[in-house]
Design a protein that fits this description.
74% helix; 0% strand; globular; mainly alpha; 61 residues
Length: 61
């Protein structure tokens, strides 16, 4: 799960937002209660993408 989260950060930092969202979704499938640390959640790119991925995973259920 942590690997997917860190891969998501790498993709977001490399302007690959779709791949970033996919990695967050994989991490959330493993642990639906996953939350980012406060400093991570406040990041202008991956914080927003994570919230979007989390919303998407929760809507599938």
């Amino acid at each position: 799960m942590k690997a997917h989260k860190y891969l998501a950060f790498i993709h977001c930092a490399s302007s690959r937002e779709k791949r970033c969202r996919e990695e967050f979704a994989k991490a959330l499938e493993i642990n639906p209660k996953l939350e980012l640390e406060p400093a991570e959640a406040g990041h202008p790119i991956w914080g927003r993408v994570f919230r979007s991925a989390k919303k998407g995973v929760s809507q599938k259920k």
